From TrEMBL:
Protein name, per record: MFS transporter
Organism name: Phenylobacterium glaciei
Record membrane topology: Multi-pass membrane protein
Cellular component aspect of the GO annotation: membrane
SUPFAM superfamilies: MFS general substrate transporter
Main location: membrane
Length: 415
């Protein structure tokens, strides 16, 4: 851009650094959330846990997450992303490290609840930061990159956490992975000072960075809020179902043991990451080519829904690699769809309320995830097999697109 102002050039360069920080915060968020599942056998052996003890800790974590998401969205909108993100990462990192000095079920439960509450800041803060720093034509790709972070975490965290536990002990694994968040926090605070001049020049949406009051009544009366909430309820069922039951599916269907699950799951989540990038990239290219926002968003969502539709074929796969391919393509479709739900939210709402709307949507998505977890357990205990859940997931994305279209027939960007 030969005529770009120094502030515009600085903003263009700095926004990608900020995006990188958001990406790594999301990856750290996933790592701190999942490490307890990876270390479960060691914790059971060392602390004498039963499966019910472990299940109780996880249930309380999920319940705390569901109850905190709307509050997290309000918090980020109220104090702004710079301070909100800093507080969130600082508190959840401290809670993650607290696992390393816990000895009783009560200690672990308390640490998990604090972790859950603080970690809910990540999703509204990540989306709000991306909205503030990226213009509409680049926002889809940026959100696709951020949305890929959990997928990459699902590949690399299983390699890191067990290695640390074997070399240094499980307590050190919690302390080290939790401490990474404080390194991120130091960089975030330094970058915040560097961004002051860019914000003052009008290259960043200050309303998102600083904070404002949340108009809850008007948001709950807005049809577009319900479009986001309903779509998240329907589509997050698929994500949470495969996240918690995918390994069990491979074990039941193909007899894979613990040491054999890594490669097929890496393929599944590697493809999911590709779907996140692709969903953002394709939408950005369509918008750059002059396609209107309504057609670009819903067109990519339709493509994602069609990728999920064949997921029941995994049940008839002749080998686990073919099943992993089917599940990976389905999760790629999920991530493409999810990226454009977030981008749709940023399209139609002003930046000052993005956190609250994302919080509402994430709450609905968590409730959808809890619903399918309960249904899956009941179905499997009663001999139903995996077909009912796969059928629900296959249909959910087309239903979510229809839901969005009914509540938001035409996507019109906010001023």
């Amino acid at each position: 851009m030969p005529n770009a102002t120094p502030q515009a050039t600085a903003a263009s360069n700095l926004r990608w650094v900020v995006l990188g920080l958001v990406f790594f915060a999301s990856a750290i968020n996933y790592a701190d959330r999942q490490i307890i599942a990876l270390l479960k056998p060691v914790l059971e052996a060392d602390l004498g846990w039963s499966n019910s003890d472990y299940a109780g800790i996880i249930e309380k974590f999920q319940l705390a997450t569901a109850l905190s998401l709307m509050l997290a969205g309000w918090f980020v909108d109220r104090v702004g992303v710079r301070r909100g993100y800093a507080w969130g990462v600082g508190v959840w990192s401290l809670a993650a490290m607290a696992h390393g000095v816990a000895y009783t079920i009560g200690h672990f439960t308390g640490a998990r609840i604090v972790l859950a509450v603080a970690e809910t800041v990540n999703t509204p803060a990540a989306i709000k930061t991306t909205t503030a720093w990226f213009p509409a034509k680049e926002r889809s790709l940026a959100m696709g990159i951020v949305n890929a972070a959990p997928n990459l975490g699902a590949i690399f965290v299983p390699l890191l956490a067990p290695a640390l536990a074997l070399a240094l002990g499980w307590r050190a694994a919690f302390l080290i992975t939790g401490g990474i968040g404080f390194l991120w926090l130091a960089v975030w605070l330094v970058m915040g000072k560097r961004s002051d001049a860019v914000e003052a020049a009008g290259e960043v949406d200050v309303a998102a960075v600083e904070g404002a009051k949340t108009p809850w009544l008007s948001l709950l009366a807005d049809r577009r809020t319900w479009a986001v909430a309903g779509a998240k309820f329907l589509t997050d069922m698929g994500w949470w179902f495969l996240l918690f039951w995918g390994p069990d599916f491979f074990h039941r269907q193909f007899g894979l043991g613990l040491g054999e699950l890594g490669p097929p799951l890496a393929l599944v989540y590697g493809l999911a990451a590709c779907g996140s990038f692709a969903g953002g990239y394709v939408a950005s290219r369509l918008l750059a080519a002059g396609v209107n926002v309504n057609l670009a968003r819903k067109g990519v969502m339709l493509g994602g829904a069609l990728l999920v539709l064949p997921i029941p074929l995994a049940l008839g796969a002749q080998n686990y690699w073919l099943a992993a391919l089917v599940l990976g393509i389905a999760l790629a479709g999920h991530q493409a769809f999810s990226t454009n739900i977030f981008a749709f939210t940023a399209d139609v709402f002003p930046a000052k309320v993005i956190g609250a709307v994302i919080g509402i949507g994430a709450t609905a998505g968590t409730l959808g995830g809890l619903a399918i977890q309960s249904f899956t357990g009941w179905t499997l205990d009663n001999g139903g097999g995996y077909l009912p859940m796969f059928a629900i997931v296959a249909a959910a994305y087309l239903l979510a697109l229809l839901w969005i279209h009914l509540w938001a027939p035409k996507i019109v960007p906010a001023d």
